[in-house]
Amino acid sequence: MSYRIAVLPGDGTGPEVVREGLKVLAATGVKLDLKHLDLGGERYKKTGDILPDSVLEELRGFDAIYLGAIGHPDVEPGILEKGLLLRLRFELDQYINLRPVKLYPGVDCPLKDKGPADIDFVVVRENTEGLYSGMGGFQYKGTPHETSTQVHMTTRFGAERAIRYAFDLTRKRNHMKQLHLVAKTNVLTFVHDTWWRAFNEVGEADYPDIKREYAHVDATTMWFVKNPEWFDVIVVENMFGDIITDLGAMIQGGMGIAAGGNINPQGVSMFEPIGGSAPKYTGQNVICPLAAIEAGKMMLAHLGEEDAAARIEAAVVKALESGKIRSLSAGKMGMGTSEVGDLVASLV
Question: Does the annotation mark 184 as catalytic?
Answer without folding.
Answer: yes
